[in-house]
Design goal:
This protein is of the alpha+beta class. It has a domain of 103 residues. 26% of the residues lie in helices and 31% in strands. It is built from six helices and eleven strands. Strand 5 and strand 6 form a beta hairpin. The protein starts with a helix and ends in a 7-residue tail after the last strand.
Length: 215
């Protein structure tokens, strides 16, 4: 049987097993130098294509830098400021006139088109038209009508806009060594009125104001 298979089959073949050092050296792949990226190589190159790419890069960078900053949203002005600005423009068209009127026990300087806060007017509702007859003085750019004590037939016309309350005032009471402490809050009621006009003062004797004010 051995002669039929030949001399190769008579003895088993030996398998060569590499040593540990050889296995480690063979397992690590050889160092391969990778080529540089095409973009940087062409940019560093002095070819026409490199110059075109560099120009495109500069344009792209400049477009990013020139992007406008986000604009801040402007808040609208308060309603009181808008009303005051509109009424001031309307009053500037006519004659500049003001008056000093007494409401209750207080005196107020009023201008047509503006609004004031007064002490609570009893019996007055919103949008009611009222007439103030206690006019102590009326003044214009050239004349002054001084009442004795009031300007006869002069009247200030107004419209009630709101019935509200003043800011709260804190009243604190304290007595030492008596364990007595009291805290009370109070809001005084008020009325907001808008002055619509000043009339009836033209027939009252006036004092002419000097054109130039002495120094």
């Amino acid at each position: 049987m051995a002669s039929a298979l030949g001399p190769a089959a008579s003895a088993p073949s030996r398998i060569s097993v590499p040593s540990r050092a050889q296995t480690l050296t063979l397992a690590s792949p050889p160092f391969v130098s990778l080529p540089k990226p095409r973009l940087f190589s062409c940019l560093t190159d002095s070819s026409p294509r490199a110059s075109i790419l560099s120009r495109k890069w500069k344009l792209f960078a400049s477009s990013e830098e020139s992007t406008p900053a986000p604009t801040e949203v402007q808040m609208p002005e308060p309603v009181e400021a808008q009303i005051e600005a509109s009424t001031a423009g309307e009053a500037a068209k006519g004659e500049d006139v003001f008056a000093v009127v007494m409401i209750g026990s207080r005196q107020y300087i009023v201008f047509p088109g503006r609004y004031i806060y007064t002490q609570r007017l009893k019996g007055a509702n919103v949008n009611d038209k009222i007439i103030l007859n206690k006019v102590l003085l009326v003044g214009t750019r050239t004349k002054a009508y001084i009442g004795q004590p009031v300007v006869t037939n002069a009247a200030v016309h107004a419209v009630v806009e709101e019935q509200g309350l003043d800011p709260k005032v804190i009243i604190f009471k304290y007595k030492k060594k008596k364990n007595y402490r009291r805290t009370i809050g109070h809001r005084q009621p008020n009325t907001r009125i808008k002055i619509t006009g000043i009339t009836g003062y033209q027939d009252f004797p006036a004092e002419t104001m000097p054109e130039t004010i002495p120094a």
